[in-house]
Specification:
Elements lengths: L2 H15 L2 E2 L2 E2 L8 H18 L5 H14 L2 H8 L11 E5 L9 H9 L3 E5 L7 H12 L7 E3 L9 E5 L2 H11 L4 E4 L3 E5 L6 H12 L9 E7 L5 H6 L10 H16 L5 E2 L4 E4 L9 E7 L2 H10 L4 E5 L26 H6 L2
Parallel strand pairs: 3-4, 3-6, 4-5, 6-7, 8-9, 8-13, 9-12, 11-12
Antiparallel strand pairs: 1-2, 10-11
Helix pairs in contact: 1-3, 1-6
Length: 351
């Protein structure tokens, strides 16, 4: 299957996914294979939360919506134009996915297949339904994908390279078993927002999207605020108040209650608005329903801190800095926004 056909197939997939949006689910009769797949996707969206309490319909629809925006002819053409891929099917890449947010492993899956190589997928038990459904749809579009895609729940074998994503603990396991293969092994990372104390209410509201989307479970989710000394957190709390309905979701409420109890028993100083806690802490990975914060005294000290801790940071959100992601955009990555800054297509094409 030539590159043009691969791009065409994923573009059709993008048209299919456009039917599932946070604005609503709406059937488009002109989309190929809707009769076979539309109802299956809708049913899985509505039932996923029974298997994983974090996979609410809103979060799944948001993930599908983001991928629908990326999977179009122009974006895919622009993404791959500077790469030179091997002949199709020369290599098999094992992709081991995490399950923290819906379709978190799709970019790796896409990268392997758009490169023309074979993908061997080992899924997280927390997110096992959507990649197989997407694979079936791709095979319906172009049956040649049938020999390019394989899923496994057993010990992996018969692969040439590995792309694995997990926690710091699982990364050690991955390194032990897969260290002899060419690999990309991803560990825990979190994202940071830099505040300057001149943000508008709307900018802080947009920051709330970066904090609360996917309940803060993604590596691109903001888990820490860097603020100037003396920062008044009332303005932040006021701007994010519209997100208070999160506390009505039982799984989120349980985490909020538990983590608050732990903090209070430890006599930590907290700022709390009833659904989100702020704690001063030098670490980056804050528990669900909480954010860490740290003061900075100068721009130079801030930039040094972020540089020194780069290996712990997925992205930085803020304004007035071309390297920062704008408020509200951390969960809207483009095709070339590679996790950990490692160019997946370059890795695959260089095997």
């Amino acid at each position: 299957m030539v590159l043009e056909k691969r791009i065409e197939a994923f573009s059709v997939l993008g048209e299919f996914l456009k039917q599932f949006s946070t604005k609503g689910i709406s059937r488009n009769q002109n989309v190929p294979f809707n009769k076979e797949f539309f109802d299956r996707f809708e049913e899985e969206i509505n039932h996923a939360q029974f298997h994983n309490g974090w996979f609410t319909p809103d979060n799944i629809l948001y993930a599908l919506e983001q991928w629908a925006e990326n999977l179009n002819q122009a974006a895919l053409d622009n993404w791959v134009k500077d790469y030179h891929f091997r002949s199709p099917g020369e290599k098999t890449i094992a992709v081991i996915t995490a399950g923290n947010i819906p379709l978190v492993g799709f970019h790796d899956f896409l990268s392997v297949l758009i490169s023309g190589q074979n993908v061997l997928v080992k899924q997280s038990s927390s997110d096992k339904s959507f990649l197989p459904l997407i694979s079936a749809y791709l095979i319906a579009i172009n049956p040649e994908f049938n020999k390019r895609i394989k899923f496994s729940e057993e010990k992996l074998h018969g692969f040439d390279a590995v792309i694995a994503t997990g926690s710091n603990n699982t990364a050690r396991y991955f390194e032990y078993y897969f260290g002899k293969y060419p690999n990309i092994i991803r560990r825990n990372r979190n994202s940071v927002a830099v505040l300057k104390d001149d943000e508008t209410k709307d900018e802080l509201y947009q920051l709330g999207k970066d904090v609360f989307q996917y309940f803060g479970l993604g590596c691109r989710s903001v888990s820490k605020l860097m603020v100037p000394r003396g920062y008044d957190f009332d303005q932040f709390f006021g701007a994010v108040l519209p997100y208070h309905t999160l506390i009505e979701i039982k799984k989120y409420e349980n985490n909020y209650t538990y983590n608050k109890a732990v903090y209070l028993m430890s006599e930590f100083k907290l700022l709390d608005n009833g659904f989100l806690m702020l704690k001063e802490d030098a670490a980056y990975s804050s528990p669900i329903a909480s954010l860490f914060y740290e003061y900075y005294d100068s721009k130079e000290a801030l930039e040094k801190k972020l540089s020194d801790d780069n290996d712990n940071i997925q992205c930085v959100i803020g304004k007035d800095n071309e390297s920062y992601i704008p408020f509200g955009q951390s969960q809207c990555p483009k095709l070339d926004d590679y996790a950990d800054g490692v160019d997946t297509l370059r890795f695959i094409s260089g095997l």
